[in-house]
Design brief:
Two copies of one chain form a homodimer. Chain A contains eight helices and eleven strands. Chain A is an alpha+beta fold and 220 residues long. A four-stranded antiparallel β-sheet of chain A has the order 1-8-3-6. In chain A, a hairpin with a 5-residue loop joins strand 4 (55-61) and strand 5. In chain A, helix 1 packs antiparallel against helix 3 (109-118) and helix 5 (149-161) packs across helix 8 (210-217).
Chain lengths: 220, 220
């Protein structure tokens, strides 16, 4: 059994029963390059998806052709849409794309189902993680419905930049991050530039005043 | 055993095994009046909630004090937030209020957990319904992020009015339905009135031109 990956999921250490161990043993490690598709819209889901390290973004396409990032699956997390699909049947209503080099584990549907029925600790892991991800979706709804776009934009710029002084991203990509339209984001960014918070270049946003951006991010 | 209510859930007919039947037998029927609280923000969840007939709306409050209706639990449906809470632990992040006279069934957490572990048909029912409700939340995200507010408002007016020629609802209540602000909704309604689609009175909206409203609802 090659289950070194299990060490990356502390909650899976408790899975010591036979059915649970079998499911973990059936897990196959895969490596995704940035841009690789983890699953496509309309695919049937054949595997439970766990990310060891890296980042897979799950995005939905609206009928108008606009996009929104629903969530990311990152180190030690499972994918809520995959879990829902496996549990409820049906097909993916979104697509998942690796955005960094990503190591993931795929547990075949049959092994997943069997463990869900027979391993209490495995079930606990799956449900707990699923509940976490669901809460994040509810937060996203609250964000989109309630929070001012400029505050959300400032927050996302800081998140995506991390420690770096600038961010390589297009206005369209930012619109997708926030479920907004490109022209709306461009307007907001120009406004931020006028206020000295950022400096815009083609494909690059320089963060000039982090403190002001943080203040704006917390402004509602 | 008093399980007449089971007849309202066709998918539960398949639950014939002992563990599953025990959970159904542990279900207690309750009647809610309009305005009764089914669960409060911060409550621990003690029961699996199924609505036999009626309507319970689940709403979230933003930090700004604004509200949004996340979803409704209606005839033959379960509550996604309750299910998530029961499966993942944690407390309710929203509150649920009956908006019509409602008959519901409460299955105690322990009986629910036991059946989830031991009854394959019960598990199938729970997961399938859960997956359905999750899809609805994803649709809500898509709606809020992508669709024009006037189209969503027209759609909701038609939905809420049903066959009736008018709708008794405040602008604030409509804002909560759509995750928007009261003043924004008032502006949209006045615009609709100017275009002859509706006539506004205090607490009442008369639908004057259904065809135009339907056209608007489908306009994106």
């Amino acid at each position: 059994m090659n289950e070194d990956w299990v060490a990356h999921f502390p909650a899976l250490q408790e899975v010591t029963d036979t059915a649970g161990r079998e499911a973990l043993a059936a897990g196959r490690e895969v490596v995704l390059k940035p841009g690789d598709i983890a699953f496509r819209l309309g695919d049937a889901c054949s595997h439970y998806l766990l990310v060891i390290e890296g980042s897979v973004k799950v995005r939905e396409l609206g009928t108008s052709g606009r996009e929104i990032i629903l969530y990311r699956v990152q180190d030690g997390e499972s994918c809520v849409l995959t879990t829902a699909c496996l549990m409820a049947g049906g097909r993916y209503s979104a697509e998942a794309i690796a955005e960094r080099p990503t190591r993931a584990v795929l547990i075949p549907a049959a092994a997943f189902q069997h463990a869900l029925g027979h391993s209490e600790p495995f079930r606990r892991f799956v449900f707990h993680d699923y509940g976490q991800r669901l809460s994040e979706l509810l937060e996203l709804i609250e964000d989109i419905a309630f929070r001012r776009l400029d505050a959300r934009l400032a927050e996302r710029l800081l998140e995506l930049a991390g420690e770096a002084p600038e961010l390589h991203i297009t206005h369209q990509e930012l619109a997708t991050e926030l479920g907004s339209a490109r022209e709306v984001i461009s307007r907001q960014l120009k406004d931020m530039q006028r206020r000295g918070l950022v400096r815009l270049e083609r494909g690059v946003i320089h963060l000039l005043d982090r403190e002001a951006l943080e203040h704006l991010a917390e402004s509602d």
